[in-house]
Amino acid sequence: MTSIYDQRPWLAQYDTGRPHDIVPEYANALEMFTASVRRTPDAPIIRYFDGVITLRELDALSDEFACGLLAAGVAGGDRVALYLQNVPQYVIALLGVWKTGGIAVSVNPMYKQREVNELLRDSGASAVVCLENLYGNVRPVFDGLVITTSELRHQSRNDPRAFGGVDSVACPGARDMGELIAGFAGQRPPAVSPQSGDVAVLTYTSGTTGPPKGALITHGNVVFNAQTYRDWMGVGADDVVFGVAPLFHVTGLIGHIGVSLLTGAPLVLFHRFEPTLAIDMIRETGATFTVGSITVFIALMNAPNADRDALATLIKVYSGGAPIPPSTVKAFAEQFGPCIRNIYGMTETTSPCHAVPLHADAPVDQASGALSVGVPVFNTVVRIVGENGEELPQGEVGEIVVSGPQVVAGYWKKPEETARAIRAGALHTGDVGYMDADGWFYVVDRKKDQINAGGYKVWPREVEDVLYEHEAVREAAVVGVPDAYRGETVKAFVSLRPGKEVTPEELIDFCKARLAAYKYPREVEFLEELPKTGSGKLLRRELQDHGRLRSGA
Ligand code: AMP
Predict the structure, then answer these.
(1) Which domains, and CATH codes, for the chain?
(2) Which of 346, 354, 411, 486 to mutate for ligand 1's pocket (most ligand atoms within 8 Å of CB)?
């Protein structure tokens, strides 16, 4: 495979001084971590408020946790779900699961019982590690091993900025993570050495039809993309990684945990994103690198403590997961200095497949106003294909198809879905875009029916399924409509059963109780009949256009 620098010589000016195509340096993510432990055992690797965990301590804690899992009956190859906020226990548990030879299943902490249940069933998880205040969503739907932990652990200040109202909660029938670890103090589990193709994490993504699909993120995927972050963005041991992206998502898994474990750069965690607190934490820790959704950066700009020098140390800033308005990049640079650079990828590419080089200014497409998402990262080949799978010439708009070492191995126990998405190693992204004459890529549309609410993805079918559970609903169609802050938000069109009555507010509350906060419809509009084709298929685009007009976009 030719180097990206052979294909696009102009990129050489942004050289970070490293080889251009990556040779994986480790067979698995544990080896990658162990190398850092050996290099600098006493370096801090996690900062959580005023608590610090060194590499040596993280190694010991995860060893002890692995021993606890094994003693409780977890065996190699088992799936262990992590249902946690951005807390140090996430990293301890992830490494601990890998040390048992197991697979971590990442679960969004915003998920409600119904959503958690789906993931636990599909993955066949034998254990769950969760925050105490999420236990109530797990116990009623899961009779396996539950290990609970409090967000108050690993920091001593009980920081009122983040923890006002957070209490320790009794969890009858669960094991306490701290006690489990303490019970195996100083012990090491039997050594394991996963192969590069072995699955490290199942990260769930929903689909147009059917239940959520667990993307098979291998150890090789984790190592490759951790190296990509290190070499493309120039993240090294002297950097401080600021953990604003959720750890359950691939951005947090690789752009925070992976790159920190690889380089030994400390990872700053602070439970859950809150802009005022985030600015305080950047100042306190001297954070230098971050990657997050654009809504994070908009929120930072509007925080009451957002002085001009608030982000003085934060010089490497990347954003992905949703389109970035060029006006936001400009406003952020004017307010704070640094340029927000685009990174593009998805769960199925283990975070980035494209990114803007660290010192480059990405162009804006004059016709659509879209900011370029960058160029393909190391070892990655991207094609734009037409309706019949034919490769389109430069400049033409088609589906973005990605081949490279970051493409996941498929979906957990879903061979048909895997074969549809990944053909001959090439991932059909469902995103529509093109490449310009200099090799910059632009994402201009989506083939998939996904709604992108500030980086959080909502699949209309899931919201429609919940609406159909309501006795008054005859038909439901959910679409994305423009939203000033999130880019897009959720709107439902509903027709009612004869003789039934319900208000939009009641339907919204009904969904709120059953879906994560970013998924429930912000607006419900009643129609006599939903528009359909002759064969009865819902005309979603028509509804979307109707929704756009109504919201004045
Ligand atoms: P997820 O699997 O949650 O990471 O979502 C991936 C999807 O987010 C992609 O398929 C795109 O539709 C969208 N996306 C990711 N990065 C960008 C970006 N930089 N610009 C526009 N859309 C993006």
Answers:
(1) 29-35+55-157+170-193 (3.40.50.980), 451-551 (3.30.300.30)
(2) 346
